Amino acid sequence: MRDFIKNYSAGNLAEAENNLLQVLDSEEKLPEAFKVAVYNNLGVIYTLSGKYDNALIFLNKAELLESLNKSYSKSLGDIFINKANILVRKKLYSPAFEYFEKGIDIYNSTGEKVKGLENSIAVAYLNLGIAYIDVGETDEALNILKKSIEIRLKMRLPGVALVYQNLARAYVKVGDKQKAENFFIKSIETFIMEYGEDYYRLTGVYNDYGVFLKDEKRFDASLEMLQNSLRICFNKYGKNHTLTSLAFKLIGDNYLARQLPDSALVYYQKSLMAIVPGFNSTDINDNPSIDSSLFDIRLLDNLKSKARALGMLARQKTDRSSRVSVLEGGVETISLALELIERIRKGYPDEESRLYLAENEKETYDFAMGLLCDLYTLSPGEKIKRRMYETAVRAKSAVLRDELSGYEMQKAAGVPDTLIEKVSSLTGMAAAYNNLILEETRKSKPDSGKIRFWKDEIFTMNREKEKIIAAIEPGFPRFSELMRKTEPLPAETIQKRLRKDETVLDYYLSSDRDAAERKIYIFVLSCKELGLYYAPADSLLEKNIKTISNAFAGLADGQAAGTGFGEITGSLSYLHNVLFLPVRDKLKGRKVKIIPDGEIALVPFEALISAPPASGQHSFEGLSWLINEYLFSYDYSSSLIMPKSRGRTGIKVYAFAPDYSAFPDMYGRPGTLVKAEEEIKSVFRWFDGVEHQGAEATKTSFIRACGEPGILHLAMHLAPGGSDSRYSYLIFDGRQDSIDGGKLYNYEISTLRIKSPVVVLSACNSGGGTLSRSEGLMSIARSFILAGASSVIKTSWEINDETSAEIMSSFYKYLSEGKAKDEALRLAKLDYLGGHPPAYTNPYYWAAYEVLGDNSPVVRNKNNRLIIAVISLISMAILIIIYSSRRKIFSAFSR
Known about the structure:
- The chain is α/β, with parallel strands linked by helices.
- It contains 33 helices and 16 strands.
């Protein structure tokens, strides 16, 4: 263990880890108490290294050994608290709270007098209280933090000031401003009394208190606190440090809140100089390189703040040319921020960076769109408009690309566990060493040897990670193909893929963090033009979408009464006027492809009505549905719009319909799809193929069929994956199938190689999934497109399987005649509307089915072939006549 202590003390975590693993691998019999200590130390090493899952594994081993003791010990309590702290870092709060409570119970149940027990209890309460603040349960946080302070005061333990600081934070959250301020002041006074005026932890309290005072518009008092923080940062860390940069940035925020962007920009520029060594320009028109920052997330935050200040400064300018000039500087700055986001994302971010991106990335893109829109309003031009579109497309594709780079997707695409884990390990270690450097620089006498060692290790690990990432692309083409398929494309490329009569409406909806500034952007793409419409998006948009969504969900759940006719038609009319009418005159034909964003993904466009019902009308029959005039299809991203495919002859259908009544106890008792058999039979009236019903409808047989260039028809249930739609799955017959018991998970589908021209998902809510502000609904349907299917027929809500069978039968009829998919589905729906009484013309019954992807016919139109043949014969006849005439003329001349 001497080598472990030496390496750990020197900050060499990798060697310290090896030392402990060698102890465990030795053949020497180790006492259980010693083993527990080794497991605990490995847990600490892995936690510091950012390898949280490994840390939990060894803490579980320590727990197992420690639990064999008949009586509770402090060591077992420590294990539970350490596990809780790791789970908090992973943002898994629910199990974390359980471990905190169990650990504290064990501490309190320990009969023996153990040194440091009271301090351990007080620290556990503090960390638990902070976790409750993080999740917004501030009342519980206050109760827990008060317990920590009681123990510390009673036992005269250190750390009282830190508890005061977090009590202040909790009171800010609950809105008790007076108590919040009292505890901020007590925290500052206690830190100074115990450690002096330059204690490093004072920076955190000064920053928190300064932000609180700024929000209360007590700007001078706020500035005094923030300048105290800056003074300590300069004295402790020097001019180039992440905390010094943060102090400058917060002072900038103070001036920005006062509507003084000029002063704010001075400090934002200083914050950039502090985070990027070697960048020394005080000119606000200059920006640093993003390649050499001390901490990318701090640089990203600083660039966003500077761009926001430039936007405010532009609005305060009175002449147009000055406004345009300042806005151009803001656009340049926010573009650097977006470039940095891409770099962080492509570099396999550590946990902290990943969580920051998840919470802030969309807001950054929204602000970029706002700046570009302001610039476009002042100086309209094709270049700016196309830049806006490029920004919107990148924002919408970011979530999808992040999902694809996740562990399950990489593994399913064939990337070995060893490579995935190696990249993750190097990322975690580099982040851990950066944190260790930060902590070491906070000390009164930092160890320069340790800092130098950690920096060298970070450099080496980053180079090794770059080599592995570079090897993944050529070595694993399926994963690379998926990433390339979702790479955002310029408008020109997309336009080349459109027909003359086809228009794409690509929506971008800014987030609702500030409802007053929320905007909707509609980009109108035809083969020759790019149009743009933008307007404020008020709360009525979300309200009317919810009205429609809730109405159809209620009918799906069998609720006879619910949203009334007036509410539904009112919402459909409103959505038409906001989402479609403003760009209607820009459409180049009847074919319209919708690329939604956010909650717009829930809107059934063909069911929107262009005129309200007549006075006194209470029936859906005869309304001015957009389906009467247009052929709608959908895509998740413009990058997924592919060149049009040609129909084939002899196309087959591979149909799958499990019999759920044969295994009612599996998968949570899925209901039997009564009309599924009838639906499958109707399909084979129009197409030849292979039928997989009952026990033959297995996952294995489906995967085999994916390699065939035929139609895939799935009449089955979809099980939701909770909040993460990657884990939703289609339910095949799993009684005799060894592959996952018949479950085909969403994340698996994307990595299949599907050759089908169309996948028909006649399943419950096959288009549903996790609603994302950046990419609409993440769903099973989209995964089939990524897997290679030319198109998918999906449902946007659960529908009656009798209605489903009827619409599907008509759809296949028109498809077999050579109709395009959007036209075939439209005609099938119009047949339904024309053949049913008014009570069944509610859009719930017919509007759920949507075409996703390529609209091309799957069968060559026989009429088209006949026309071509006739034209060919006529052309030949004309040529023969011309040839004969010329011979006669030639013969006459000869005579």
